[in-house]
Design goal:
The protein has 171 residues and is of the alpha+beta class. It has 4 helices and 10 strands. It has helices spanning 3-22, 25-47, 93-96, 118-122, and strands at residues 51-54, 57-69, 75-85, 91-92, 97-103, 106-107, 126-127, 132-140, 148-154, 163-167.
Length: 171
C-alpha cells in the first residue's frame, strides 16, 4: 500500500476515534459513517492510478491492442494513452514521459514493426500547451497469456509519482 495513502487512512482513523471519544452518542454514529466514507474515498483514489498529473502533463492510460506481430512473428502489444500538455511550451509526449511495460516482472523490449498506427506517430509530435493527443507505444510480449503491467513517469523529474495499469492478456 502506498505510504501516503496509508498515512492518510491512519490520520482519518485517529481523527474519527478522537471525535468519537469527545462527542455524545448521537455524533458517534455520524463519525463512524464519515470514517467509512473516508475509507471508500482512499480505495477509490488507489484504483485511479491509470490517469493523473505527471508534472506539467496529464496522462490517461487508455487501452491496449493485441494480436500484433513484430518482424520475427513475436506477439506485440500496443498501449494507447492520452497526453495533455499543461506546460507553457510545446513538447512531444516521448520527450516528456517515460513509459515501461512488464510481463512476469521483466521489462519488455521495443519491437521492430513493418507498420505503425497514427497514434504511434503522434508520440513524437510536439503539441502546444492545453492540447491533448492520443499516443501509442508497442512492446514485444514474452507470452501471449501473462498480464502486461504498464508504468508511466515524467521523464525529467525527481518525483516518485507514476501511473500504472495492468492489462489482462488472454490467448
Amino acid at each position: 500500500m502506498n505510504t501516503r495513502i496509508f498515512s492518510a487512512l491512519t490520520a482519518v482513523i485517529v481523527l474519527v476515534t478522537c471525535l468519537t471519544a469527545c462527542s455524545d452518542s448521537k455524533d458517534t454514529t455520524l463519525s463512524i459513517v464519515s470514517a467509512a466514507d473516508a475509507v471508500t474515498s482512499v480505495a477509490e483514489v488507489q484504483k485511479r492510478t491509470d490517469e493523473g498529473d505527471l508534472g506539467d502533463y496529464y496522462v490517461k492510460i487508455l487501452d491496449c491492442e493485441t494480436g500484433l506481430k513484430d518482424y520475427d512473428e513475436n506477439p506485440v502489444i500496443g498501449v494507447k494513452f492520452s497526453f495533455t500538455n499543461n506546460s507553457e511550451e510545446a513538447i512531444a509526449c516521448d520527450v516528456a514521459l517515460y513509459m515501461l511495460a512488464y510481463q512476469n516482472g521483466i521489462e519488455l523490449d521495443i519491437p521492430i514493426l513493418d507498420a505503425a498506427s497514427d497514434e504511434y506517430n503522434n508520440t513524437s509530435k510536439n503539441i502546444k500547451p492545453g492540447k491533448t493527443i492520443t499516443c501509442e507505444e508497442y512492446y514485444v510480449m514474452t507470452s501471449d497469456e501473462a498480464d502486461v503491467e504498464i508504468e508511466v513517469r515524467e521523464l525529467a523529474s525527481f518525483a516518485d509519482r507514476k501511473l500504472e495499469k495492468t492489462f489482462i492478456i488472454h490467448n
